[in-house]
Amino acid sequence: MTDLVQLERRGVVAHLTMNAPGSLNALSDAMLAALKARFTELGTDGSVKVVVLKGAGKAFCAGHDLKEMQAGRQAPDKGRAYFADLFFRCAEVMQMIPALPQPVIAEVHGIATAAGCQLVASCDLAVAAEGTRFGVNGVNIGLFCSTPMVALTRNVPRKVAFEMLTTGEFIDASRAREVGLVNRIAPHEALAAEAGRLAETLAAKLGAAVKIGKRAFYDQMTLDLAAAYEHTAAVMVENMLWRDTEEGISAFIEKRKPDWAV
């Protein structure tokens, strides 16, 4: 099953490739299970400092597998139980990404539509090829992208999200960067190199600091202002007491490279 999401380790960077090009890497039942397995594996792998997620073939991800969804209607309940389980499993996978200790970079090309756009929005960072199109276009077939909306509205301004959701229109990579869905854009032939450079930049930092910082980043977003400052101050106190942080500050003051233990 995990062959659907191939894993390649390049030093401390793990590259995950959704490998179902014939379906434009649709989030089938099997694909969701494979992603869950890979994220579970990486979540306990202390040797990996950054994860890059991409899709094989012509596209990053075209969203849910509509043929599987239609087949689910054949059940006596018209698919109610299957659909409830499907959206639960998809949400579970999406939530695993911010919960991972490593930063996750989406390397996006072709299209990222519906739950595929949700997948990009769920990643911590995104690099897109020029010409990539993004959409939450379920409304065009009578299915409002309500679950993709959750991740999308946590990335882009409210009116931009609502326009995308209600018109079903696509935005290109430049617009996606403008509204905050994408961090960087590269020519298609330079996409992998650009994503790799970003991954290596993150991997060069103190891994423990990035890990504690990522957790604090998402935790504080759910708190009111005073509680967010209280929480992050406690995180910084813990961070400051580390040996490697003391060494990093000393190295900066002394204008030398830090001698980190990890």
3D architecture notes:
- With 262 residues, this protein is α/β, with parallel strands linked by helices.
- It folds into 2 domains: 2-203, 2-enoyl-CoA Hydratase, Chain A, domain 1; 207-253, Lyase 2-enoyl-coa Hydratase, Chain  A, domain 2 (Orthogonal Bundle), CATH 1.10.12.
- Helices cover 49% and strands 15% of the residues.
- It contains 11 helices and 9 strands.
- A 6-stranded mixed sheet has the order 1-2-3-4-6-9, with helices on both faces. The protein has a 3-stranded mixed sheet with strand order 5-7-8.
- Helix 1 (29-43) runs parallel beside helix 3 (80-99) and helix 9 (207-221) runs antiparallel to helix 10 (225-240).
- The two termini are 33 Å apart.
- The mean pLDDT is 96.
- Keywords: Fatty acid metabolism, Lipid metabolism, Lyase, Transit peptide.
- May play a role in fatty acid biosynthesis and insulin sensitivity.
- InterPro entries: ClpP/crotonase-like_dom_sf, Enoyl-CoA_hydra/iso, Enoyl-CoA_hydra_C, Mitochondrial_ECH-domain.
- Belongs to the enoyl-CoA hydratase/isomerase family.
Quick summary of this structure?
By secondary structure, the chain is of the alpha/beta class. The protein folds into 2 domains: 2-203, 2-enoyl-CoA Hydratase, Chain A, domain 1; 207-253, Lyase 2-enoyl-coa Hydratase, Chain  A, domain 2 (Orthogonal Bundle).
Number of domains: 2
What is the end-to-end distance? 33 Å
Q: Mean of the pLDDT scores?
A: 96
- Stated plainly, the CATH topology of the largest domain is called 2-enoyl-CoA Hydratase, Chain A, domain 1
Overall CATH architecture of the largest domain? Alpha-Beta Complex
Strand content: 5-15%
CATH superfamily of the largest domain: 2-enoyl-CoA Hydratase, Chain A, domain 1
Residue windows where pLDDT falls under 50 for at least 5 positions: none
Largest beta sheet: what is the strand line-up? Answer: 1-2-3-4-6-9
**Computed Rg:** 20 Å
* Fraction in helix: 40-55%
What is the number of E strands?
9
